[in-house]
Amino acid sequence: MPVEGAPCPLTAEFLEAVIQHVAHPIFVKDRAFRFVFFNEAFVALVGRPREAMLGKTDYDIAPREEADFFRLKDIEMFSTGGQVTIDEEPITDASGRRHTLATTKVPLRDASGAVTHVVGIIHDISRLKAAEEALRLANEGLERRVRDRTAALEAAQSKLVRRERLAVLGQLAGGLAHQIRNPLGIIANAAYVLQRHVPKEDEEPSRALSIILAEAWQANRIITDLLDYARVRPPVRRAVSVREIVERALSTQTIPTNVRVTLDIAASPPASVDADQVRDAVENLIRNAVEAMPEGGDLRIGARADGGSLALTIADSGVGIPCDVQETLFEPLVTTKPLGLGLGLTTTRALVENQGGSIGFESTPGRGTRFEVRLPLVGQALEGAQDPAEPTGLAS
Predict the structure, then answer these.
(1) What pLDDT sits at residue 270?
(2) Which among 243, 92, 230 is positioned nearest to 170, based on CA atoms?
C-alpha cells in the first residue's frame, strides 16, 4: 500500500500521464520515421485525430515541402546521434493554418546505447513571430512617417526660405526699379542714337550696339518680372472677350517670321476676369512659347467653354521642358533660361489663380509644350478648380 508522501512509482503509465499533461507538444518517431507516441498538445497543434497519426509519417500529416524538411532533420539526428536544434520551422495544421515552431530533437537509446527513436519537443512560437512581425511593420511605418515628416519639414523650410528671399527681392525691386530703369533707359537711348550714326556696313560697332540694346532689354525684363511678382493686386473683374486679351498680348510681342501663329477662339464666350492681369499672364506664356522655338515652329492659341470655365490653351512645337524641371516649373527662381530669373511662370500662376482660375501644362522634350489656363465664365463660378500643385490630367 503506498505510503502517504512517498514518491510515485515511475511506471510507464505514470510517465505517459505526465507527458500527456505537458503544455508543449512532444512526439516520438522510430527509425522508420513513424510516429509511435505523442501527447495531447501535439494532437491539438496538428489538428488531426490521434488514430490518424499513429504509425504514420510526416508525409501523411504535412505538406510535402514541410515533410521534406522534418525528414532531413530526423536523418541528421539519427546520423549524428546528438541533439538537433531547429530555431524556426513552419508547419501547416489540418485546417490550413500555418504555425512557426522551435523544435529540439534528441535521441532515445536502448540498453546497448543504440539510437532507436527520435524525441521531439516543440515550442509553438507563432505568437512571438507575429508580435515580432507586427513590431517590425510598426517600426518601418514609424521610420517611413519620420522620413516623410522630415522631408515635408525640409520642403517647408526650403519654401519659407525662398519666400523670404522673394520678399526681399520684391522690396528691393520696388525701391530700386526707378534708379535702375533710368540708367537703362539712358543707355538704350544712347545706343539707339549711335546706331543711327554708325554705318551698317561697319559690322563690329553695329554688333556691339545690338548687344548693348539686348542686354538693356534683358535687364529691364528682370526688373519687370520682379515688380510683377511683388505687386499682384486684387483683380478688377469685368466681362471680357478672350480674343481681345490674346490679340492685345500678341501685339506687345515680337513674333519671328519663322513662327506661325494659329488662333482658334472665334466662338469663345466672355470670361469674368481682370483683363490686364490675364493679358500679362498670356504675354508671359506667349513669350515663353516663342523663346522655346529658336528655329521657328507653330504657336497655336485656342479657347473653348468647358463646363463653368473657359479653357485657354497656348501650345508650341518647340524644344519642350526637361523632365527634371517639370515638377518644379511653377516654383519661384526655377528657370531653364541662362539669364532668366525664374519668376515669369510663378507670376503667371499667381495672376491666373487671382481670377479664381488654374493653370496646368503637358510637355514632351523635343516635341513642344501645351499650357492650359482655366478662367471663370461670366455669371458662373469656376467649378472643380484645383490647386495647380495637384495633377488634373495636365501636369502642373
Answers:
(1) 84
(2) 230
Which of 176, 203, 229 lies at the terminal end of a domain, its last residue?
229
Range of the domain at 60: 12-124
Tell me, yes or no, whether 174 and 284 share the same domain: no
Between CA 49 and CA 46 the distance in angstroms is: 9
Strand partners, 368: 364
Supply the pTM of this predicted model: 0.47
Q: Looking at residue 167, which CATH number applies to its domain?
A: 1.10.287
**Residue 259 host element (H or E):** strand 259-264
Cβ atoms 289, 299 nearer than 8 A: yes
Task: Kindly provide the residue ranges of all beta strands, DSSP E only, lying in the chain, ordered along the sequence.
Answer: 26-30, 35-38, 84-92, 98-109, 115-124, 238-240, 259-264, 271-273, 297-306, 309-316, 358-364, 368-376
Specify whether 240 is located in the same domain as 355.
yes
Has residue 141 been placed in a domain? no
C-alpha 116/C-alpha 32 separation (Å) is: 10
* Structural contact between residues 377 and 269, judged by C-beta atoms closer than 8 angstroms: yes
For the chain, how far is it from start to end, CA to CA, in angstroms?
95
Asked if residue 298 belongs to a domain, the reply is yes
CATH of the domain at 324: 3.30.565.10
Q: Is residue 26 a contact partner of residue 35, using CB atoms and an 8 Å limit?
A: no
Q: Indicate whether 23 and 54 sit together in one domain.
A: yes
Contacts for 309 with CB less than 8 Å, ≥ 6 apart: 357, 374, 375, 376, 377, 380, 382, 383, 385
Cβ–Cβ < 8 Å for 314, 370: yes
- Domain-embedded: residue 390: no
Per-block average pLDDT, block size 10, for the chain (396 residues)? 57 82 92 94 93 94 94 95 94 92 94 94 92 92 92 83 67 66 81 79 78 78 65 78 88 86 81 88 90 89 85 89 75 57 75 87 87 84 38 35
Q: Are strands 259-264 and 297-306 parallel, antiparallel or unpaired?
A: parallel
Q: What is the pLDDT of residue 171?
A: 65
Residue 111 lies in a domain: yes
How many structural domains is the chain composed of?
3
**Cα–Cα distance for residue pair 229/221, rounded to 1 Å:** 12
pLDDT score for 8: 58
CATH number reported for the structural domain that contains residue 71 in this entry: 3.30.450.20
* Contact in structure between 127 and 133 (CB atoms under 8 Å): no
Grid coordinates of 159: 519654401
The verdict on 242 and 293 lying in the same domain is: yes
